[in-house]
Amino acid sequence: MTATQAQPDPEQAARRFRELSARAAGSNVNEISLLATDYLNHINEVIMLLEIVPDAPECLDDCKAWQPLEYAEHFRHSGIADRELAIEAYPFSPPQYKEPFDRLVREMNRLVEISIKRLDLVLAEGNEDQARHVAARASQNLQDLIGQASAVIHGDNHVVDQAQIDALMDL
């Protein structure tokens, strides 16, 4: 559903949620949140690249080439069996799950961008120890955010607050 499409009335949205939730049972899409953990693989890709950079600085170019993907865009390119359901269900994810999930994704993307810029700077300075530190912190902080996003996907909407997320950005 795009911003230009009319929002369904609450009764239609509730009916659609129930339909999608029933279809999600036994699939890769969580029937409570209507979100799928497969999306997090996209972030895991860049984490692996960031971890390699201290030992293979040329991989920083691969990090720079990595681009965040919107949820539906990721699934359009995905090979999972439930990709159409994941795309269809996303707009109907209840706000108590979708909003924290989307916020966490934005923060992960922001942390990737900050980390790449910081790694670029310390590598240009020839500071291998600092590059290891930045890569390790970025990896750990991104994994922490992935854990939070995974919890949301699995129906837990109690995530870290903005101050805690901002603290993760301090590399």
Q: Describe it for me?
A:
The protein is mainly α and 171 residues long. The protein is built from eight helices and no strands. Helix 2 packs parallel to helix 6 (95-124), helix 2 (41-52) runs antiparallel to helix 7 and helix 6 (95-124) runs antiparallel to helix 7 (128-153). The longest helix is centred in the middle third of the chain and has 30 residues, at 95-124. It is elongated, with a radius of gyration of 18 Å. The relative contact order is 0.16.
SSE layout and pairings?
Layout: H1 10-24, H2 41-52, H3 60-65, H4 71-76, H5 83-89, H6 95-124, H7 128-153, H8 162-168
Helix pairs in contact: 2-6, 2-7, 6-7
What features would you highlight for this structure?
mainly alpha
The outline comes out as: elongated
Radius of gyration: 18 Å
How many strand elements?
0
| Total helical segments | 8
> What portion of residues is helical?
55-70%
Can you tell me the residue ranges where pLDDT is under 50 for at least 5 consecutive residues?
none
Classify the beta-strand content into a percent band: under 5%
Mean pLDDT: 90
Report, as a whole number of angstroms, the end-to-end distance.
36 Å
String of helices and strands: HHHHHHHH
Biggest sheet overview: none
> Structural class, please?
mainly alpha
Question: In summary, what is this structure?
Answer:
With 171 residues, this protein is an all-alpha fold. It has helices at residues 10-24, 41-52, 60-65, 71-76, 83-89, 95-124, 128-153, 162-168.
